[in-house]
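Case study 2.
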Amino acid sequence: MSPVLSVSAVKKTYKSGQVALHEIDLTVQKGEIFALLGPNGAGKTTLISIICGLVSMTSGQVLVAGHDIVRDYRAARAMIGLVPQEIALDIFATVEDTVRFTRGLFGRRGAPDRIEQLLRDLSLWDKRGARTMELSGGMKRRVMIAKALSHDPDILFLDEPTAGVDVNLRRDMWEIVRRLRDRGVTIILTTHYIEEAEEMADRVGVIDRGRLVLVEETAALMRKFGKRRLSIMMQQRMEAIPPELASWPLRLEAGGERLVYDFDAKAPDTGIPRLLRDLGTAGIDYKDLETSRNSLEDIFVDLVENGA
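Prediction:
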């Protein structure tokens, strides 16, 4: 099956000589939720802006369902909905008029029933006659999403969609994302809330300093890089790790009240029984043990810090 989005050797160099993107290659399938992760300035927004035709690339090619974003811009752009980080609305226009106008920009007919359903889905119907200047920040974010969905795009880009929004909007937004995916819409998002990517995304891409360092299925990434963590709650607070345990990769947390050991659960020998014996030999008492799985955030930080 042909991908709905194909990015081939896309590079962006500014006139100053700064390279924002280093020959990015990426394909995304129809109906997929793809999360693009990376620190500030990594190139996430630049890549999205190039795909959406807002920023020109220095070299490379972007195809949206086979349409070249440069040679066949109108057809390609009509398949894309974008919710940018910044809120940009006509403050004097009503909510309903804003969404209707955006739909018209893409050559779509009015379809009042479609607009009503969209506003109801985003809890905006009761505010349809309000001017956008009268709305709260969360409501303005909902209007931005309604604008992006107004022309029924095949691909929806969400650039930091939940940054600074309330919990209710975040929950509603992800419910909408799930429904869109069920209808075959492809979702590509950037987020600082990595737990959301872990829960929602089918695949994750990590971008750092303009390079796509990894693309992996979320579940496979967790299996491949995810470790487990043993937290040992100390009976008494420790000032430092004693010399008897110097050979173990341990660290102190919670002001010396917790000793932490990361291990590979798939390894033939996790080392835990030996560690506990060494604790007893050193005369160190503990009151509780707890194991947990490394999160996607831990994996992301490790990949970026180690330049994977």
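The first helix runs from residue 44 to 51.
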